[in-house]
Structure formats: C-alpha cells, structure tokens
Here is the input.
Amino acid sequence: MTAAQEPTRPVQGDPAAARPVLTAPEVARVVDRMAHELLEKTGGGADVVLLGIPTRGRDLARRLAGRIEAFEGLTIPTGSLDITLYRDDLRLKSPRALEETELPSDGVDGKLVVLVDDVLFSGRTIRAALDALADLGRPRAVQLAVLVDRGHRELPIRADYVGKNIPTSLRETVHVQLTEHDGVDAVLLGPAAA
Amino acid sequence: MNRHLLSAADLTRDDALLVLDTAEELAQLTERATVKKLPTLRGRTVVNLFFEDSTRTRTSFELAAKRLSADVINFSAKGSSVSKGETLKDTALTLEAMGSDAVVIRHSWSGAPVNLARWVKGSVINAGDGTHEHPTQALLDAFTMRQRHGRLEGLRVTIVGDVLHSRVARSNVLLLSTLGADVTLVAPPTLLPVGVEAWPCETSYDLDAVLPKSDVVMMLRVQRERMGAAYFPSSREYARRYGLDVRRVTALKDDAIVMHPGPMVRGMEIAPEVADGVRSTIQEQVANGVSVRMAVLYLLLGGAESAIGGVVSETREEGLQ
Here is the structure.
C-alpha cells in the first residue's frame, strides 16, 4: 500500500540517505518534557493509565512511566494495546501477526487513559485504538501522546502531547528508533523508497 | 489464488507457529481482557457444512466465527436438500452462489474437502474428513501442549489407540513433525494403517514400554461406527492392553499430560478418574479450540489474501494415504 496508509513501518529505501531529526540525547530530553507535561496536564498523574501501541509505542509508554517515577516517585500503570484486528485497511493486505494486548490489573474503567504511539500520521491507527479501547472498558477520558507528529491527518484526531512536530512531504518516511528494538535512540527522516 | 486448510501438511513451520502465536493473543484478548466480540471479519460469511454429527467442532467453529463478527450459516445434512439426493457439488455451488467467503466442511468421505476446494471460490477449512485429516484439531492439540510444556521442539508425544480410523492422529503426526516434536503411535497391529512406516513417526505395540518416556499421552477414541469387522477380541482386552487407567498413569513423568480429542468412551480407552484427573487437558483442549479456530479464520479470511494455507491443483495428492 501507499505510505499514507501505513503510519509505522520498517526503514524503507536507503537508511544511509535518512537524516537524523532527533539524536539520542534529544530523544531523552523530549521524553522528559512529555513526562512533565503529562504530570502538569493531568493534575499530578492521578488515575492515569499509559497504553502504548506496539511495538515502539509500548516502549515509549514504559519510558514515560519510568521518567514520571523518577521525577515524582509515582508509579503509573502501563500496558499495551494491539490494534491489528481493528484496522480499517485489513482487507487491503495479507493478515498480520498480532501483537500483545495487556492491560494493567485494575483495567481502564474510570481511568484517564493516555494512548502512546511513536509517529502520528494519518490518524487511522489512533481511530483503531479508540475502537479497541472501547471494547476493553470505559475510561473517564482518553488522551494521546506521540513522539513525532508528521502531519497529513486523514481523520479529525490530534495529540495532547507531542514530542516533536516534523513537517514532512507524503513521499518522505519518518522512522523512530528506540534502543529496546533498534539498539539506538533516534528519529530519522528519509526519502520514500522508489 | 485462494488458500485453504485441508491438511496439516498445508502448514509450513512458520505458518503453524503464526497460527499458534495468533491464537495465544486472541485467547489473551477474549479470556483475560474479556473482549467477546472483535470486528475483524465483519461482513464475511462462513458456512458450516456438516455432513457428519459433531458437537464440539461445529459449535467451536461457530463461536470462533461469531467472535470475529462473521456471519455464520449452519448447514447440516439432515433437514437439507442433501436428504433429497443433492450431490456435494450441487450443494457447494448453491452455497457459492449465496456468496460464502469460507466453507468449513465435515464429511465422512476422506478427500471431500479437497474436491470442494476445486469447486468453490472461497477458502475451504477441513473440519474432519472420514479417516483422513482434522487439521484444526491438531492445531489446538499443539497449542495445548505448548501451553502446558512451554515448547514443542523435542517434546515426546505418544498417540494411543485407533490410529487406523483416526483423522486426529494423521493430522497430529504431520503437524507435530513439522513443529519438531517426536511422535510415537501405539496401537494393536490391526489398528495401525498400512503404510504407517512412511509416516514421520515411530510405532509400538507396547503401551507400558512407551509411557515412562512420554511428555504427552493422547488417547484416541475407538471408532466403533467405522469398524465393519472385529479389530480386537473384546472391549475388556482392549482396555487392559491399550486403555489409560490409574495404574498406568503412575508410570508417567511428573509433568506429563493426558489429552483426548473427544468424544471419549470412559472405561474403554480412558478411565474416568484419568479423564477427570489433574493431568487431563480435555477441557482446556475444548476452550483452546475456539482461540485456534479464530486464528485460522483470521489468517485465512482477514486480509486481501490468506497468510497461511495450501492451494489445490487438479492433481493434488494427499500426504498420508
């Protein structure tokens, strides 16, 4: 499919041609700032549950929780939410392997759920995540945290916490690398594969 | 080219592991996170075409399809045009004209699903054909073994009883050998099929010699309804030599499990105390059946093209005759 329908994907084209937009120390500072913003906007993080969208959203959710714990000594429940079965483009490609869905033991009912993803692009992933979340319970409110907002929304969805806004063309690719998966922290902007 | 699940041999090792991993995530969602309904197959139609009696397989497929939001049509031979003399092909073409995306078929003829796959455009899933194969049963058995033992590679699986008439045994031998388990079939000589030497497994006539080495013991039902002749002298003698009773269970390893695909004949191939004992996975197998069948339906029907399965050609030959 076209890049527009595929917000997160492996590196395409020539990785050497990709240029770093955020380096490792910058990623760390951005995550720290997002953790502070989250505490500020949620009145100290009470009743917050962080749900990451696999794979890198889940890692980011864990990192945010780790930073909040370091700043305030507050343990925020985290989990992961796989959206594969809720995608609107399922019929357009071969079925994919499922990722883990794991909720904190107290669930999401009555909680302030913050969805966490690496890149916000068309907004379709988040739409699917909202559907998946509705099947799991009834949160008091839902917010969205993303490391990168690259624009080109196709749905009326916006993020509450944004690590970095990166204006892109539709032909470019944004690739988030995290040490948990890629051995290094970076955000790369590269030309799309031909 | 549409793909089907007609034989356990249609699954490569990667396919089989994809089914098991998908089933595990689905079990997590439907059991622990209590999501009872997923939107994934909304608008797809699954036909359950059952020419043989079945309780667990038909309801299991029906529940699996419904949990994925597919529309399900149950069609049994009784009360249909089949009882008026309609052929399998005409029945298939009728269902095809109604726009089914998948047909789940159970039939007393070995090979009926392969023929059906040549006639219909949708995917065909074999839910048991005669004495030939029952691939989703093998998948749920492998899933249960992996859940209990944490691995399949190198696992020693002993399948005991009426192998001759057992589609469960054939599919399990094929799938488990694909997944790296070591299978031993134990049965009286009269209940081992001709050509079993060519199967990817060991055979034995002596249950007591094999039990202490087994990680999994799978008991098969003695299929009286398929037996035209006497294959063993008496039920008592069969139970004494090949039945799993309390005494034999004490010979098992501490972590060995006892499986049965159901329906079981208590007191024949398995003692009631063993069937209800702590090693028994019989109820788990039924529960796991729904998750595994959801995984198969999702991977065959969930996308533009199937992620698993085999294709049929005019000359398709089946693996184990």
Notes: The longest helix of chain B spans residues 13-32. The mean pLDDT of chain B is 92. The interface with chain A takes residues 18, 21-22, 25-26, 28-29, 33, 35, 37-40, 298-299, 302-307 of chain B (CB under 8 Å). The domain at 8-134+285-301 of chain B is CATH 3.40.50.1370 (Rossmann fold).
